[in-house]
Amino acid sequence: MGELRTRKRGKNWEWSFEGAKINGKRNPISKGGYRTKADAVAAGTQAKAEYDNAGRIFFPSEISISDYMDYWYENHVKKHLAYNTQTDYEAKIRIHIKPAFGKYKLSSLEPDIIQKWVDDMKMHGYAKSMVQNTLKCLSGAMEYAIRPCKYIKTNPCEGVRIPKMAQPEHQKAHMEYICVWEDYKKIIERFGQGSSFYLPIVTGYHLGTRIGETYGFDLLSDIDFDKHTLTVNHQLQKENKKWYYRPPKYESYRTIEMDPLYEKILKDEILQRKKNMMRYGNYFLKTYLMPDQSIVQVPADVQIAGKEIMPLSTRENGELLTPESFKYCARVIHNELGIPYFHSHSLRHTHGTILAENGASPKTVMERLGHKNSRTTFERYIFNTKKMKDDAVSIFTEAIEQSAYR
C-alpha cells in the first residue's frame, strides 16, 4: 500500500494514500477539511492503520483488555445477547473486570491472575452468584477472542475455580422457597379474580413460565382453546424506558398444555376484558405491537399502524401492566401476608417441583419450563422436598419387600 501523504487545499489540509487496486484500477483514498497539517496527519495515520488492518482499529497482539472488552461488548454482546444481559455485563465490565485487568494486554492474561481475582472477590464479601456471573462474563469474552477472532489460543478462565462460599441462610431460604398450598391459597384470597395480579399469579403457578414470559402472552394469538395449549412466543422486556416483545430467554419457544382450571380462568378473563372494552368505550386503552416489536397503547378511537394484541395483564381500562408492576404484589405478600421469601420466580420453582414430586419425567419438566437441559432443571428449579424424601423411602421399602417375597 502507498505511504500516507498530506497536502494543503485552499485553507484546509487533506490526507491520502493508495489503496489496493480494484479491477486493476487505482484506488486512491483521501479525506480533507482539516484545520492544520498535524490534524490531517493524525487522522490519516489512524485511517491508514484501520485500512491496513481490514477495518480493525487495533493490532490484536497489542490490544489492552480494557479496549478488547469494549470491542467484545460492541460486536457481540450488543448484537447477540438479550438487553438485560447487556446491561448486566456492562456493569460487570465497568465495575469489576476493567479495574482488575484493563491495563494489561489481552495476550498476557493468565489463569493464576484470574484465580487470585476470584479469590479476592470472595474475601471482599461478594455473593457466590456475583462471582460466578462475573467470571462467566470474562470467560465469554475470552472465548470470543479464541473463536472467531483468533486473538488468543486458549481461554485463561479455564480451570479457574470458584472457592467454597457459605451461603447466608436467608438467601438460601429465599432461593429455595416453594409456594406451598397454604401460602398459595392465602395469596389467591388476597389477589383474587378481579385483581390485576390474579392472572400473572395463576399463570406462573399453572404453567411455570418466567415472569417476562407471563406478562408477554398475547391472549389474541398465543392461545389455542381447541388444542388446549398456550405458546410461549416472546417475553415482555424493558429497554430504555420502553417495553418490547423479545424472544424468550435462551430462545425457549415452546407450546404448553393447559390444565382445565387454568383454561377456564383464561376464558373468563377474555370475556371480562371484552366487557371492559364496551364499558370504557373510547377511553379504553388498546395495545399494539409495532414493527420494531415495541408496545404502544392508544385510546380505542385512535387508529395506528400496528398489530393489535391483548396483553395478559392490564388494568380495567386496558392500561398495560408489566413485570415491574408485580413488585407491588410481592411487597404485599411479604409484609401483609407474612410470606417473606415469596418472589415471582418461586411460582416457577413451585410448578416444576409439583411436577417432579408427582412423577413427571425430567424431559417433560425440562421442556415445559423451557430449559436447555435437564441438569439445569434439577439443579436450579426442583428441590429435594420432604415429599420427595418420603417417596424415596416408600419406593425403597416397597422394592425390598417385593424382593423378599420372590
Automatic annotation (TrEMBL):
The Core-binding (CB) domain, residue ranges: 63-146
PROSITE patterns documented for this protein: CB, TYR_RECOMBINASE
InterPro entries linked to this entry: CB, DNA_brk_join_enz, Integrase-like_cat_sf, Integrase_catalytic, Integrase_recombinase_N, Integrase_SAM-like_N, Phage_Integrase
Top-rank lineage group of the source organism: Bacteria
Organism, as annotated: Blautia hominis
Free-text function comment from the UniProt entry: Site-specific tyrosine recombinase, which acts by catalyzing the cutting and rejoining of the recombining DNA molecules.
Protein name: Site-specific integrase
The entry's keywords: DNA integration, DNA recombination, DNA-binding
Similarity comment: family membership: Belongs to the 'phage' integrase family.
